[in-house]
Design a protein that fits this description.
Elements lengths: L2 H18 L1 E5 L4 H8 L2 H16 L10 H16 L3 E21 L2 E2 L3 E2 L11 E7 L20 E5 L5 H10 L4 E5 L20 E4 L1 H10 L4 E21 L4 E11 L9 H18 L7 E8 L7 H9 L2 H5 L1 E7 L10 E3 L16 H14 L5 E3 L8 H5 L4 E5 L8 H7 L23 H20 L2 H4 L14 E5 L9
Parallel strand pairs: 5-6, 6-7, 7-8, 10-11, 10-12, 12-15, 13-14
Antiparallel strand pairs: 1-16, 2-3, 2-9, 4-8, 5-9, 9-11, 13-15
Helix pairs in contact: 2-13, 3-4, 3-7, 7-13, 10-13
Bound molecules: D-tryptophan and zinc ion (2 copies).
Length: 495
């Protein structure tokens, strides 16, 4: 057979294959379908560029209470106001912290350590004390009996079973003067003690590898721990915007934290969620023909312990909370080594926390069905309390959302599903200065932005599956339909 013959054979088989390929698409005449079409990653990326420039002009950060946060908030509020949204700035107090020093040596060797947020300070230059290795039982360092002879010592405790705050509190009561908590999974341990009052002794996080190494034969060796943070009472604000149309007693709420950590510009965490919600709001418009009002929240001080979203939920009366049909959360949706996680509303993974309030399982299904229809497999992520849905579910509001991963390591099986690099964190720049415009998977961001648009559009039409509320006939809109077209979609196929 000639070369030409082989080539034309290949062309023919490709054409035949293409003709039979089915690409799922959304009914273009539905509100969710229209919103998905209108939200594109180029516009989302433009907002990310804006947030990067704001950080660059603001000492490299957009942390709560800094000028970088205020400029970010005004960028978002200004665009929403110009589009006719009702915009509220909700101010609240919080304790700002920023790391000044984080250094540990064990038996003279430097060990990378991350000061836990709200850890008490050591004196300048640190404290030196013998290491006390605490047994890694089922509840490592959670109970007083775990700490036999720790007076004046720095304890080495495994992560898990109880909070970091509890471990260092029980250790402090037993007489320990410092705590090193080591991870129980790969990746850095960047934790928080929750609030300033909980911090009892200087506490830092180290890796699993380091912790396991020093748990072996290092009991009693000298440890120097230098952990210092600035702590200051400050104020910051949430930005809330709502459509002028749609019923106000069955509101669809979607939120993203806008603040970054002090150490970086936070373009993936959480420029991605913030920029996506802004673009969805602008494309939806302030007065769309919808059944349920849509309210957007850009939270501040998430990085200091979910403070803005908690303040917001707690500022609502019981009746005002009842007016919220559901809450959608988007925190890190364009990680550079992305996974496709949806919050495990039905607890089908049976890990960690239980299911969310009724309706959370249905929200998970809406998001995962959409991504599946685009050929993208998803996994669950536990409602472990690490993002702004926390206070919503704790008062009974059904919630869901998407997440592409932070410091944990991508597995071989996940690479087989989604591509990327096994053995590397989903976001190797998590909470660092390198979380910049180079730290984004724009295909993942594009796919997730469409899923966000789809979910918001779907629930603006009807929340019936979540809470039984049906559209009134006067305002009834076509529900979303996922159907299959022959290779004619304008949507990019899944990566
Ligand atoms: N709260 C995020 C990181 C994070 C960790 N686990 C999850 C799960 C779901 C959403 C977000 C996260 C941060 O802002 O650091
Ligand atoms: Zn973060
Ligand atoms: Zn975040």
């Amino acid at each position: 057979m000639s070369t030409w013959g082989r080539r034309s054979g290949l062309v023919f088989s490709l054409a035949a294959a293409l003709a039979s390929v089915s690409i799922p698409a959304l009914a273009a005449d539905s509100l969710p379908g229209q919103l998905v079409q209108k939200v594109n990653v180029t516009s989302v990326n433009r907002h990310l560029v804006a947030l990067q420039r704001i950080a660059d002009n603001s000492l490299g950060t957009r942390a709560a209470s800094t000028v970088g946060h205020a400029k970010s908030a005004e960028y978002i509020a200004g665009k929403l106001e110009a589009a006719g949204f009702d915009v509220t700035r909700q101010e609240f107090p919080f304790t700002y912290t920023q790391t000044i020093a984080q250094k540990a040596t064990v038996d003279g060797t430097d060990v990378p350590v991350i000061a836990m947020t709200y850890s008490p300070n050591t004196p300048e230059g640190g404290i030196t004390a013998p290491l006390a290795v605490i047994p890694a039982d089922d509840t490592p360092g959670c109970e007083a009996t775990d700490y036999a002879d720790v007076t004046g010592k720095i304890v080495l405790v495994q992560r898990g079973a109880c909070t970091f705050a509890q471990k260092q509190q029980v250790a402090a009561k037993a007489g320990a003067v410092g705590a090193l908590i080591y991870n129980n999974t790969d990746g850095n341990l960047n934790g928080t003690l929750g609030d300033p009052a909980s911090g009892k002794i200087p506490t830092g996080g180290i890796t699993k590898a380091a912790g396991e190494k020093y748990s072996t034969s290092y009991n009693g060796v000298p440890v120097t721990l230098d952990l210092r943070q600035l702590q200051e009472e400050r104020t910051t604000y949430n930005v809330i915007a709502e459509t002028r149309t749609g019923r106000k007693d069955n509101v669809v709420m979607a939120g993203a934290h806008l603040d970054s950590v002090p150490d970086g510009p936070g373009i993936n965490d959480n420029g991605t969620g913030s920029a996506t919600l802004l673009e969805v709001a602008l494309r939806l418009g302030s007065a769309p023909k919808i059944n349920n009002a849509v309210r957007f929240g850009w939270w501040s001080a998430e990085e200091f312990g979910l403070i803005g979203s908690t303040y917001y939920v707690d500022s609502l009366s019981f009746e005002q909370q009842l007016d919220l049909a559901l809450y959608l959360n988007f925190d890190m949706i364009g990680s550079p080594n992305a996974a496709y996680f949806a919050y495990d509303g039905d607890n089908s993974d049976s890990v960690g926390a239980g299911p969310g309030p009724f309706g959370s399982a249905q929200i998970e299904k809406t998001l995962t069905d959409y991504l599946t229809s685009r050929g993208i497999a998803t996994e669950g992520t536990d409602f472990d309390g690490r993002s702004d849905y926390g206070e919503f579910i704790s008062v009974g509001i059904p919630a869901g959302g998407l997440y592409t991963g932070a410091e944990k390591i991508k597995t071989d099986a996940q690479v087989a599903k989604w591509g990327g690099t096994a053995g590397v964190a989903y976001d190797a720049c998590y909470h660092q200065a390198c979380d910049n415009l180079g730290n984004i998977d724009r295909v993942a961001l594009d796919n997730n932005a469409d899923a966000v648009a789809f979910a918001i559009g779907t629930y603006a039409v009807s929340t019936q599956t979540v809470n039984g509320v049906t559209p009134t006939s006067a305002t009834a809109k076509k529900p979303a339909r996922l159907h299959t077209l022959k290779a004619a979609s304008t949507e990019a196929p899944a990566a």
